[in-house]
């Protein structure tokens, strides 16, 4: 007889299933820290920033024009490279207390050229340019370049 045969076998105890479900039930939905009610672990961001899923934070300087070429005031908004220009327009309007974002447009002011920014593009399409103009659509004059075209690539250059 071996010495190991004389020792009683250790009993393997599993935690009660109800305990692990109770913990999962109290966890935040989709929390990778506590697991989910489905038993799978879903990762989530530990950052509370709404921008965290879109890349690093970028600051855009928005000049608000009441009339063409006359800046009423300017503001800076935090965005990310993956954010759509539609979201940028809405965020800029909220920050500047403009009531109807659909009545406004964003322009990219490049040297002596002003370009109408398509709202289906992303901030990455600005290619590092951080100064924009928020203007009423009715005030866009003939000097503004339009028709940069639709594309399936949202990061395509403006």
UniProtKB/TrEMBL annotation:
Any one biological process term the GO annotation gives: TORC2 signaling
Annotated TUG ubiquitin-like domain residues: 75-107
InterPro entries in the cross-refs: Sin1/Avo1 (IPR008828), TUG-UBL1 (IPR021569)
GO cellular component: cytoplasm; plasma membrane; TORC2 complex
One matching Pfam family: TUG-UBL1
GO molecular function, one term: phosphatidylinositol-4,5-bisphosphate binding
Span of the signal peptide: none
Protein name, per record: TUG ubiquitin-like domain-containing protein
Species: Mycena alexandri
